[in-house]
Amidohydrolase (Orenia marismortui), 395 residues
Amino acid sequence: MLKMKEEALKIKEEIIKIRRLIHANPELGFEEWQTSKLVSAYLNSLGLEVQEGIAKTGVVGFLEGNNRNKVLAIRADMDALPIQEQNKFEYKSKNKGKMHACGHDAHTAMVLGVAKLLSKFKAELEGSVKFIFQPNEEQSKIPGGADTMIEEGVLENPRVEAILGIHVNPQIEVGSVGIKEGSIMAATDKFKIIVKGEGGHGAAPHETIDAIIIAADIVQNLQAIVSRRISPVEPVVLTIGKVCGGESYNVIADEIQIEGTVRTVNPEIREQIPMLMEQTIDGVTDIFGGDYRFDYQFGHSVLNNNRELTNLVTEVSKIIIGEEKSIILKNPLMAGEDFASYTKEVPGFFLHLGVKNSERKIYPWHHSKFNLDEEALPIGTAILAQSAIEYFKNV
Ligand SMILES: [Zn+2]
Ligand SMILES: [Zn+2]
């Protein structure tokens, strides 16, 4: 297994070069045309069977090992975010208002590295590997990349048995990885509330229905769902990220829009939330004689790491980077991830790769100065590649 670490270190510069090239040329969801061209050219150069144009810009590379019908998938996402990059290094984004601020450039580069390593060790592969490069993880357009890839048959022909994924994590020190069985990323839903009142003169509130007052009470009382109606040991986040409405300082507003997101880990709690929210919205609006429209949209499901795959990757990680660097995470992250869509179909495992460097400031995901310590890239590559080899020994 340590051989794989050495092999990954040998291609480290190449992986970094690919990552920087993708970083400098970020593309948004379903528009990853250049990135997907780069990916398919690389996979073709390795001699893989390559399929392009799945879910518009998605690419799949198939590496046939000793058994064509035993298939493990490894997935990378390719999309960037609509953020103007503030970093100053020479490979900063060349595309105005677009940036790889979530590390998908690194995921794509690493999984290409895995394809290269496994091509070299094809003789040791007791099955075959499907490399999935998907568009639009960030869901700039609905439906997202993973769902569209699945719909277009990426898990079929030949059928995928299990899937591995990876995400860089700026909260974990470089050199380490974060591992957790069960829920690792939250279910992410979004909602919109339109509060309807009746406008009028600011000096005569008794002749109006003030939508701002109703909205303010709704904002306050929605927080009480988390603190008073859900068990304190169940993780739930209810965030309101946008409130807008009103026309002028001396006019009572007749309509306010409220938008937010709900994050949960327990599917039963998730089911209850829209009903609890509507009770609050309905009750508060009723007090003031107003009206409302409430729209709740279920997004990504919770991402659950399969037990056997977790054990397998943990063992590989312990050998490649050591036990103390294979950190067992206690809690899931309350962010979402569309890798969850694959794990609803087949057993999956999602690895968190440490990219934090305490000696310099690393900004959080989706920050205009997000960057990562590239020393992590060969580590992620080696763990995924070796896990694929071990997977077929175990099944
Ligand atoms: Zn992201
Ligand atoms: Zn991401």
